[in-house]
Amino acid sequence: MELTSVAAIYVLFWVTAAFIVLPIGIRNHHESGVEMVKGQADGAPVNFRPWRILLLTTLLATAAFGLFYLNYANGWITLDTIDIFNSRERMKDI
User: In angstroms, what is the C-alpha Rg of the chain?
Assistant: First the structure.
């Protein structure tokens, strides 16, 4: 696999991990008992910590990408493994 492909796939894993990590541990002013500032949205977070989110996102993305790359290199799970409807065999007949 080329380095550019590795980088592109890692970015996809990182963005997906960011969407998974973002809502973890976030509290709004109602949950925290903090008074709202004028013009603040009802769901605006009180305890948003971007460095923590970046760290957790990077750790999750790196672990998931590591598993993906190990599977790519070792061939643990292939298309034949997950083809439960035998579609690859049926496509040869067409």
Answer: 21
What does the DSSP assignment read for 33-65? Answer: TPPPPTT--TT-BSS--HHHHHHHHHHHHHHHH
- For residue 62, count CB atoms less than 10 angstroms from its CB and return exposed for 0-12, middle for 13-18, buried for 19 or more: middle
d(CA 25, CA 52): 10
Residues 6+ positions from 29 with CB-CB distance below 8 Å: 35, 36, 40, 44, 46
pTM reported for the whole predicted model: 0.80
**Which sign, positive or negative, has the C-alpha torsion 40, 43, 49, 51?**
negative
The tens digit of pLDDT for each residue in 39-68 reads 888 888 888 899 999 999 999 999 999 999
